[in-house]
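Narrative summary of target 7.
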Amino acid sequence: MNVADFNIAGYLAVLPLFSDLSPAELSRVAQGCQIRRLTRGDTIFRYGEPCEEFHVVVSGQVKLFALSAAGQEKVIELVSPGHSFAEALMFTSKPYILNAQALANTLLLTVSKQTMLVEIERDPRFCLRLLAGISRRLHGLVHDIESGALHSGMQRVIGYLLRDHQTDDRNSTAAFTVSLPVSKATVASRLSLTPEYFSKVLHELESEMLIEIDKRDIRIIDVQRLASYGVR
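Modeled conformation, tokenized:
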């Protein structure tokens, strides 16, 4: 895709945050946006840099992570297409508190803070939609913290493998395949596990004939047994 030909206003119209805006409003917001093409490993921002914008992943994937004083990395969030990040921090006038990096070739939409302030002043309902989106992200992060604190490493891995399956779906006997979107080490960090422990859990599940591993593809053989295995 040629970045110069990307229809920013058209893309904004399908995002929940902007979907209720009129064509004229979408056009105004689009003027305050930029499209960036990133390659795998490119840095989007670093801890301590000024935050005057927020970002939406159009395609690809972005990793939000923290670094310890010793240089150890902790993955905070993996951002997939259609999802945004840094919108809450943008309004605090404080610098970035995390690092962001492209995990694959990525198309990134960046929306300036000034553009958002103008639209909020024009229509306060726009602020409510923004708050709803921030609340959903906060709810997800709280859920992740609870999961890390209350669930065992085994339960976290199983929960990750079954994350897209609703409770009713878990009564199904149909096998399906989960493709890890990033390396096993990155997923392990996201689950607050070491890569070694993550691999150990996967191999235990495979030895129990609950899953089959083929590089990044993990075939779930028995959903019910896998779900119950995590709480035994």
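The chain has a mean pLDDT of 84.
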